Amino acid sequence: MNGSKHFSPSELACKCGCGTGQMDPDFLELLELFRCKYGKPMVVSSAYRCADYNDEVSSTGRNGPHTTGKAIDIRCYGPETLELFKALPDGVQGIGVKQTGPYAKRFIHIDTLNNPNRPWSWGYE
């Protein structure tokens, strides 16, 4: 498991309890730039996911973005969401937005997947 100055290994680890959490070093560096530009703490909703857990919680199955260590969901809502968008660093290739339902379940997703069909953005129901 790895962490950084502003993100501990435990908050980046898979939430299923398996203890895995190997974030991509380049993504972790980008995440630090994002945090420093934002200037405030960020609450991690989900970062690394093992294949089993990702298959359980995501439509992307066993090979989704979170299984690569190149994706993170940051909990946010309201004006904070726009502030986070303004702080996004260059290099982000995917942006997902969930701003409906209970506040504790709202977030933005960012990733750096290298894919010929990227960059792109989407909303969650």
Task: Describe, in plain words, how this protein is organized in 3D.
There is one protein chain. This protein is α+β, with helices and mostly antiparallel strands. It has one domain: Muramoyl-pentapeptide Carboxypeptidase, domain 2 (2-Layer Sandwich). The longest helix has 14 residues. The radius of gyration is 13 Å and the shape is globular. The termini are far apart. The model has no long low-confidence stretch (mean pLDDT 94).
List the helices and strands and how they pair.
Elements: H1 9-12, H2 25-38, E1 43-46, H3 51-57, E2 71-75, H4 79-86, E3 94-98, E4 107-111, E5 120-123
Q: How many distinct helices?
A: 4
How many discrete domains? 1
Oligomer: single chain
Given as residue ranges, the uncertain stretches (5+ residues, pLDDT < 50) are none
In percent, how helical is the residue content? 25-40%
Query: What is the global morphology?
Result: globular
Structural class: alpha+beta
Question: What is the typical, i.e. mean, pLDDT?
Answer: 94
Specify Rg, calculated over alpha carbons: 13 Å
User: What does the largest sheet look like?
Assistant: 5 strands, mixed
State the end-to-end distance.
31 Å
* Pattern of helices and strands: HHEHEHEEE
